[in-house]
Amino acid sequence: MIIESLHISNFKSHRDTRIEFDTGISIIIGGNGAGKSSILEAVSFALFKQHTSKRIEQLITIGQKRMSVEIQFTANGRTYRVLRERTKTSSKAIMKIKEGGRFQSLVSGDKQVTLEVQNLLEMDGDLFLNAVYVRQGEIADLIDKTSSEKKQMIGRLLGIDSLEKAWKNLKVILDKYNERNIRLEGKIESFEDFETEFTVKKDRKRALALKIKDINLKRDENIIESDLLQEKKEILDKRSMEFENANTLLKSKKDFQDQLEKSRKDLEGQLNEIILKEEEITRIEPRLKKLNVLKSLAEKSKELKVLQKDKKGIITILNDIERFEKVLNENEQFYNEYSELDSEINNLQYAKDQFEGSRMLIQQYTERKSKIEGKMKQSLKKIRDVLEKSNQVLGTSFASVEEFENHLSTFKPQLEAQIREASDSIQDIKRELSNLQVKNENLEKPINELEQVKDQCPICKSDITPQKREELLTDYQSEIEDNQEISGTLKVRLDELESKKRILDSQQSNIQSINLGILKEYLKSGNDHQQEIDNINSSLQELQKKIVILENIEKDIQNNRSKLAAIKGNYEKYLTALGSLESLGDYEEHRARLDEINAAIRDLKKNISALMEIAGDSVEDLPGEIAYLEQLSREHQHLLGQVSQKESLIQRIDENQRQIREINEELDQIQKVIDDLNYNEEAHERVKNEWKLKNEELMELSGQKQLLVGQLDQLSNSIQEIEQKLDSLKKYEKELKNLKDFLKLLNIIRDLYGKDGVQKDLRNISRPLIEEKTRELFERFNFEYSDVRLDEDYDVTIYGPSGESSLDMISGGEKIAVALALRLGITQVLSGGNLEMIMLDEPTIHLDAYRRQELIDLLKKMSIIPQMIIVTHDVDLEDAADNIMKIEKEDGVSFLVES
C-alpha cells in the first residue's frame, strides 16, 4: 500500500489539513504538541477506525459538531479512497475505487468499509499498527533493553502477548469452574440422609391427619350450643341498644334546651345595647358637617405649596440658561480651534499607522538576520569538521569541498581497481595452494602403499626390485618437498596480499563513511543563508527611509497635541455648557410655564380664602381638627353598622322562643319510649357471659386445629422439598460429570495458549523468518559482516572478519543498523513480505547524539521501502528527507505550513 493523500477536518487539533504524500522518505516535523502524531492516528482511523481516545466523540475538535478523515491510497495496482465522518451521535463511512479516471462507490458503512480494507491489505487494524507503525523508542529499545525486555517487545509485535493474556485469563475461568466443582461435590454429599428423613416425615403426616379429624367432631357439637346462645344474646343486644339510644337522645335534648335558654338571655342583652347606640348616633351626626370643608381647604393649601415650589425651580432654570449661553459665546472660538487640531492629529495618526509597522519589521528582520548568521556559522563549522574528519581519514589536507571531491573521483576508482586486483591474486594463490595440497595428498597414497607392499608397484601392480622401490620413494618424496617449498612461498605472498587488501578495505570503508552529499548540502545551505541575508539588508535600507518619515509625523503629532492641551480647558467648558443647555430645554417654554403657574397660584388663593370663611375657628389647628372629625366619622360608621343588625336580632329572638316550645314536646315523647322498653341489664349480662365462655372453648379447639394444620402443611412442604432435592441429586451428579469433562478441555486449551504451546510454536516459526529478513536488510548497509543470527531470546549475534560478535561488541553505527534491520525485518514478516510503506513515530527519541546521527545517515542511504513516513521534532532528520512537511499550532489549531 502507498498513501497518496490525506485530508482531515476537525480531527483533534486539526481544523482543515490536507497533505499530499509521495514515495521516498517523507518527514512530518514540528514541535511537541503541534499535532504531528495525530496525522498517523488519522491514517489508522481512516483505514480501520482505530484511535487512542477513550471515546470516539473526543476525536472531534472542541466546539465543532462534525469531523471527517479522507485517505487516498494505492494497493495491488488500484487506487482507493476511504472517507469516514463522525458527529456526536452518528457516523458515516464510504470506500470508493478509481475506475476510468473517476471514483465509484465500492462499499459503505463502518463495518463494511473496515472489512473491505482488511481483505484488501490482508491484515486487520492491530496487525497493521504492529507491521507498518514503528512506535516511539522501539529502535532504541532494540539496542538498550535487556534480553527479556526485547523478547517481550517483539512478542507484543507478533501478537504473542495476546496469547499470554489469554493464558492468564483462562486461569480465572478455570478457578471459577473449579469452585463450582467443589460446591457440586459438597451438595451431593449433603443428600445422603434425605431418604431416611423422607420416610419419617411421611409417618408423622398420617398421625397429624387423625388428630385433626377428632378435633373437628368436638368443634361441631360446640358450634350448635353457641348458635342458640348467640340468638338469645342478639335479642337482648338490640333492646339494650334501643334503651341506650333513647337515654342518649334524652340527655342530648336536655342539653339543647339549656343552650336555647342561654341564647335567649344573650339576644335580649344585645337588643338593649343596640338601643343605646342609636342614641349615640343621633348625638354625633350634627358635628360631622364641617369635615368635607376642612379637607378641601387642606388639599388646596397643599396644591399652593407645590405650585410655589415649581415656580422657584423654573426661575432657577431660566437663570441657568442665561448663564450657560454666556459661557458658549465666550468659548466658541476655542472649540472650533480644538476641533480643527483634533482632525489634523487624526489625519497624521492615520499616516503614522501606515509606517508604524516599520520598526517591528526592522526588529524582526534584525532577529532573523542574527539567526541566519548563526545557522550560517553552524553550516561552515560542520563543513570544516567534516573536511577535517575526512582529511584525517585519508591523510590529506584539502581546504575545499571541490578539491576533496576531485581527489575522491580519481582515488576511489584506483582504490577499487587495487582491491579487485588484490582479490583476484588472493583467489589465484588460494587455488594454486589447493592444487598443491591435492597433489601432495595424491603422492602420499603411493608412498604409503610402497611401505606396506615392498615388492609391487602401487600404480601398475607389477613386481619391482628393491632398488626400483627406493627410486620411486625418492622421486615421490622429492616431488612432495618441491610442492611444499612452493606452497611456503605462496603462503608468504598470500599473507602479504591479504594484509595489503585489509589496508585497502579499510581505506575503502573510510571513504564510504565520508558523506560528500551532506557537505554539498551544508554548502548549499550556507549559500542560501547568504542570499537571504543580502535580501534582508536590502529590506532594512528601505525600512530606514520609512522610519525617517515616521519620526517627522510623530513630531507634528506632538506639536499639535501641545496646542490642544493649552486650549483643552476652554474646549471642555464649551462642551459642558452645550450639554447643560440641551438638558435644560427651551427658554420660551419655561417662560410660558412660569406664567401658567402664576395664574394658577392666584386662583388657588381665592378658593382658600372662601373656604377659610366657612370653616371659621377650626382653621387654627386644621390637621388636628380634621383628624378628630375623621375619627368621629369612623365611630359613626361603626355604630351604623352595629345598629343595622337590629331587625335581624329581633327575628332571632322569635326563632329562639319557637325552638324552646318544640324541645319541651320532644322530651315528653322520649321519656314515654324509655318506660315502654322495660329493659333488664342483669339478665342481659348473664346471657353474654355464657356465650363468651362457649366461644372461648370453640376458639381453643380452632387454635389446636390451626396448629396441627400448620404442622401438617409445614411437614408437607418439607416432604415436597426433600422430593425436589432427591430429583436435583440426579441433576447435580450429571452436571458434575459434565463439569469435570469441561475442566479437562479448558486445561488442554490453556496449555495450548501457554509458553510451551502456541507461543513457542509462533516464536519458532517466526524467528527464522525474522532472522532471514533481518540478514537481507542488514547486508544492504554494506558492513563487513557475513551473517546475522537470532537466538530464542532474539539476542543478535553477527559474524565478520574477527569472527563472532554480540551486539555489545560492535560500533554504535552498526548497532543502529542491526536494530533498524531487525525492526524492519519484523515488519516484513508481519506484512507477509509485501511491504511498500512504513510509518516511524519519533525514531531518534532516546538515542544519544552519535547514534541519532548514525540512524539519520542510514535512513539517507535507504531505498529498501518505497514509502517511509517519519514523524519527528528532530530537525537533523530533514537531511534524510525527500519530502518535508512542517506542522505548527496556533491558538490550539494545528495546520500544515506552506513551503
Automatic annotation (TrEMBL):
Homodimer. Forms a heterotetramer composed of two Mre11 subunits and two Rad50 subunits. It comes from Methanobacterium formicicum (strain DSM 3637 / PP1). Zn(2+) binds at residues 457, 460. It holds the Pfam family Rad50_zn_hook. Belongs to the SMC family. RAD50 subfamily. GO terms for molecular function: ATP binding; ATP hydrolysis activity; zinc ion binding. Its cofactor is Zn(2+). Part of the Rad50/Mre11 complex, which is involved in the early steps of DNA double-strand break (DSB) repair. The complex may facilitate opening of the processed DNA ends to aid in the recruitment of HerA and NurA. Rad50 controls the balance between DNA end bridging and DNA resection via ATP-dependent structural rearrangements of the Rad50/Mre11 complex. SUPFAM superfamilies: P-loop containing nucleoside triphosphate hydrolases, Rad50 coiled-coil Zn hook. The two conserved Cys that bind zinc constitute the zinc-hook, which separates the large intramolecular coiled coil regions. The 2 Cys residues coordinate one molecule of zinc with the help of the 2 Cys residues of the zinc-hook of another Rad50 molecule, thereby forming a V-shaped homodimer. One of its GO terms (biological process) is double-strand break repair. The keyword Phosphoprotein does not apply. This is DNA double-strand break repair Rad50 ATPase. PROSITE patterns: ZN_HOOK. Residues 412-509 form the Zinc-hook domain. Binds 1 zinc ion per homodimer. InterPro entries: P-loop_NTPase, Rad50_ATPase_archaeal, RecF/RecN/SMC_N, Zn_hook_RAD50. The keyword Transport does not apply. It comes from the Archaea. Residues 253-280, 324-382, 412-453, 526-614, 646-680, 705-749 form a coiled coil. ATP binds at residues 12, 32-38, 136, 809-814. Keywords: ATP-binding, Coiled coil, DNA damage, DNA repair, Hydrolase, Metal-binding, Nucleotide-binding, Zinc.
